[in-house]
Write a sequence for this structure.
């Protein structure tokens, strides 16, 4: 943008320099149509015009020669008229043919000067030339003045179609007419050039012997002299010419050389014509006829004349020289002028650039200042952030240290609890053949807690680089076999196929047994967690030259591509993972593998594949002590969960009691499920869902109450609760949320989703039992309300979905009340739910069967009609949909304790 401005500015300056006019006044364009340029007289005329024109700086003279061709002269005149010359000068070849062309030029508004030869009209601006009649007279008078006795003369005229020839003849003959002394022997008509007269004169001289020859110009006079020479009478005949040109072949020189007796000066008038033209353009007054002086030049005045001409020529040369100097100076002035302008332009540009630079410098310095201030601020903020980060780190460290210390503290009592409960379990087994459910529950959960604490402590050690590997040479398959053993039961239980494919030979690696045990355990736990029933987990070892690869591949839900790079970061869970997890397992696995200089990579397409690569040998384990002692059995610091002992506990109720409400538990922690089943099975028909397909299970079951966790594998508890409450078929079922999420946001979200109660873990069983009671009691109250106030279901105290359902059903029923054929199936279809769902829903909301409810509705309507109308009883019976009045009476009596007739009284 700035460059553009500068270029534009430069362009303006250059335009200013180039456009400045050199001349303020307009030039004067003078066009001159010359008759011919072949002879010296004409050349002299043109030269004098050019010299004179050069004295006028504005005058621009353009000379065109017609080469003695009349047609081309007429064309030239037209061209000058078209070019709109300021003044036109014409020296006509012949008088008559050029007259119209000149008149037209004048008509076109172009001032026209006629020079030397005349035209046949007065339609021109001015004429300039000598008086040719006078010239003829002067010639005759000169002959007369020189003779004593009678003499003869031959006249040689110019082209008689041109005015000078006519007028010179006229003048010459008019004088001779009155003289008796001089006799005109003959007149030869030439064309102004020598060749035209030579032959006729030659012939004439055969018969006459003249004393004088008067030729209308010097050129023809010399032609005559040459003819006289041929006759050898050149000394006897005296010749008088016209023109009197100065110079080697001019008349003056011939007079001086005594070839000519005399010549009559015929001035060209070139310079005068230019003066006249300028005057005309300037609007000054000019005479129409401008006569030039003539003089006879003979031996008497020839020297004087020559001297004068010499001086004149000298002066002219001086003028020309000066003119050249002036021209040179003008050129120098003009180039200097341009130079100065250019320099001024450049100076302005320089000035502009300087100003621009100053402006830019100020701007930059201001910008810099601003940046400095911002920088300063950023620096301060950065320092503050650094300080905060430091503080945060310190506080974090102290928190982590606190938790680590606490974990250590937990570990001892937990280990004590675990070992004690192990002892109790053994004793129990010895006494009763198997240990109790509660003992196994405590044992498993305390082991789980120990594992979690170990994970936390490992994490801390890894963070502080305080883990020391104890590498021993061991077959990696041995460790894998141990870990896989822990998962075999779970795999069977979950219907997950656990496939193992080992390489043939033992795969000896230098590894820390405990570290690798944790790695495999964590990766396999992860695979097990995300592999659905009937899925597959494949473990494979591949031995290569310098490393061993262990691949653990599952057919689980996979890891979203965007989560992969973070999956090994601590506290991170994949976005599609709804299950509770510390997010430490995979982080620890990766750290341990890296301590072994190995790698762990994930491939995920259908399911997930973890590929662990560990280098062979121990060269890579520098700075680590290598243990060469052999260990016979792998001692693990994490015990597997003993599932087998309580797997037998039935998850579905064996005997369904009709009078028990149906309770569905949606929870993926099977231990908790089992505990709940054990505790609640005496009051409820217990049903369990681990979250997979939970909504379908609710639809199949239409339970009386639901206990639901928030972290579920398929959908979250929030979404499930919302879905249940939005669906007409399930909206009436009370939902109790039982979750570990104790934050306020989750609480609000769950209630917004429609949950009826929110309970956090750990919970007291008695409290849960009370909540179940309350929720069911409330439903009972609602049921009473509905069954007794069917026509005014408007209270906002009750669930909107249920109100809507009842209203919709009542409307449907009232519309079909008089139809004895109307069936429960038809009603279910009308409400877009199944017959069983309708039955369960009505039973759940209203506590009666659908057909009882319809009957009740018919009788209520009949009661109304009995009171308010005078319809016959039988009519009323049909009106409310009874097929016979007798059956109506019985039913009415059953409900209201009196017959319809009695009721009406
Ligand atoms: C030149 C010339 C002169 C003569 C004049 C008459 O072309 O022939 O010699 O005086 O023209 O127009």
């Amino acid at each position: 943008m700035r460059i553009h401005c500068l270029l534009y500015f430069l362009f303006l300056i250059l335009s200013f320099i180039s456009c400045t006019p050199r001349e303020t006044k307009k030039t004067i364009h003078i066009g001159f149509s010359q008759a011919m340029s072949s002879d010296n007289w004409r050349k002299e005329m043109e030269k004098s015009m050019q010299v004179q024109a050069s004295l006028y700086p504005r005058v621009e003279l353009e000379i065109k020669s017609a080469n003695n061709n009349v047609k081309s002269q007429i064309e030239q005149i037209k061209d000058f008229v078209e070019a709109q010359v300021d003044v036109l000068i014409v020296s006509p070849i012949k008088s008559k043919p050029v007259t119209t062309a000149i008149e037209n030029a004048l008509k076109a508004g172009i001032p026209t000067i006629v020079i030397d030869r005349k035209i046949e009209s007065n339609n021109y601006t001015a004429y300039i030339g000598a008086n040719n009649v006078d010239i003829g007279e002067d010639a005759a008078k000169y002959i007369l003045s020189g003779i004593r006795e009678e003499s003869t003369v031959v006249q040689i005229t110019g082209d008689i179609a041109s005015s000078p020839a006519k007028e010179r003849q006229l003048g010459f003959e008019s004088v001779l007419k009155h003289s008796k002394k001089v006799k005109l022997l003959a007149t030869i008509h030439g064309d102004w050039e020598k060749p035209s007269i030579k032959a006729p004169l030659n012939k004439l001289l055969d018969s006459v012997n003249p004393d004088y020859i008067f030729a209308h110009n010097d050129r023809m006079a010399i032609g005559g002299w040459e003819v006289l020479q041929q006759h050898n009478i050149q000394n006897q005949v005296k010749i008088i010419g016209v023109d009197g040109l100065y110079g080697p072949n001019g008349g003056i020189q011939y007079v001086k050389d005594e070839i000519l007796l005399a010549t009559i000066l015929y001035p060209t008038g070139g310079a005068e014509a230019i003066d006249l033209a300028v005057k005309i353009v300037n609007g000054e007054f000019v005479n129409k006829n401008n006569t030039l002086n003539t003089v006879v030049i003979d031996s008497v005045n020839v020297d004087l004349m020559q001297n004068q001409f010499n001086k004149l020529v000298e002066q002219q040369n001086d003028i020309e020289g000066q003119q050249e100097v002036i021209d040179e100076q003008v050129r120098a002035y003009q180039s200097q002028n341009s130079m100065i302008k250019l320099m001024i332009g450049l100076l302005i540009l320089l000035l502009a650039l300087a100003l621009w630079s100053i402006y830019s410098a100020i701007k930059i310095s201001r910008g810099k200042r601003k940046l400095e201030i911002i920088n300063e601020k950023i620096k301060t903020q950065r320092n503050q952030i650094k300080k905060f980060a430091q503080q945060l780190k310190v506080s974090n460290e102290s928190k982590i240290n606190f938790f680590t210390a606490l974990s250590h503290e937990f570990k001892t009592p937990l280990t004590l609890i675990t070992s004690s409960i192990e002892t109790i379990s053994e004793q129990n087994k010895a006494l009763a053949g198997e240990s109790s459910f509660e003992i196994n529950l405590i044992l498993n959960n305390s082991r789980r807690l120990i594992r979690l604490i170990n994970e936390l402590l490992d994490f801390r050690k890894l963070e502080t680089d305080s883990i020391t590997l104890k590498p021993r040479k061991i077959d990696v398959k041995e460790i894998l076999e141990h870990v896989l053993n822990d998962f075999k039961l779970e795999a069977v239980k979950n219907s997950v196929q656990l496939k193992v494919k080992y390489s043939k030979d033992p795969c000896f690696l230098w590894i820390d047994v405990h570290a690798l045990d944790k790695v495999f355990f964590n990766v396999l736990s992860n695979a097990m967690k995300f592999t659905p029933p009937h899925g597959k987990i494949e473990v494979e070892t591949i031995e290569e030259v310098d490393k061993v690869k262990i691949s653990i591949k599952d057919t689980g839900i996979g890891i979203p591509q965007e989560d992969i790079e973070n999956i090994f970061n601590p506290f991170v869970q994949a976005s599609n993972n709804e299950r509770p997890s510390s997010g430490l397992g995979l982080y620890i696995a990766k750290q341990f593998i890296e301590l072994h200089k190995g790698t762990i990579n994930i491939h995920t397409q259908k399911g997930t594949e973890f590929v662990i690569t560990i280098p062979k040998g121990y060269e890579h384990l520098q700075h680590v002590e290598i243990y060469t002692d052999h260990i016979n059995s792998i001692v693990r610091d994490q015990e597997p969960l003993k599932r087998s002992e309580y797997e037998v506990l039935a998850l579905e109720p064996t005997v369904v009691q009709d009078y028990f409400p149906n309770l569905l538990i949606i929870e993926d922690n099977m231990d908790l499920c089992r505990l709940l089943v054990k505790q609640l099975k005496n009051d409820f028909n217990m049903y369990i869902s681990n979250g997979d397909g939970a909504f379908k299970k609710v639809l199949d079951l239409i339970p009386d109450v639901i206990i639901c966790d928030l972290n579920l594998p398929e959908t979250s508890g929030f979404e499930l609760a919302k879905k249940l409450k939005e669906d007409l078929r399930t909206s009436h079922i009370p939902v109790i949320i039982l979750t570990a999420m104790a934050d306020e946001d989750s609480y609000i979200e769950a209630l917004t989703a429609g949950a009826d109660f929110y309970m956090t873990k750990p919970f007291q069983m008695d409290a849960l039992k009370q909540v179940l009671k309350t929720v069911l009691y409330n439903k009972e109250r609602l049921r009473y309300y509905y069954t007794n106030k069917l026509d005014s279901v408007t209270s906002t105290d009750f669930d909107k979905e249920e109100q809507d359902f009842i209203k919709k059903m009542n409307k449907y029923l009232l519309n079909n009340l008089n139809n004895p054929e109307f069936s429960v199936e038809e009603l279910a279809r009308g409400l877009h739910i199944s017959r069983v769902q309708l039955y369960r829903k009505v039973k759940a909301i209203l506590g009666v069967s659908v057909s009882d409810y319809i009957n009740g509705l018919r009788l209520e309507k009949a009661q109304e009609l009995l009171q308010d109308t005078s319809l016959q009883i039988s009519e009323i019976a049909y009106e409310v949909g009874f097929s016979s009045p007798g059956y109506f009476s019985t039913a009415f009596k059953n409900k209201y304790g009196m017959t319809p007739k009695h009721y009406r009284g």
Q: What stands out?
A: The first strand starts at residue 28 and ends at 34. The first helix runs from residue 2 to 19.
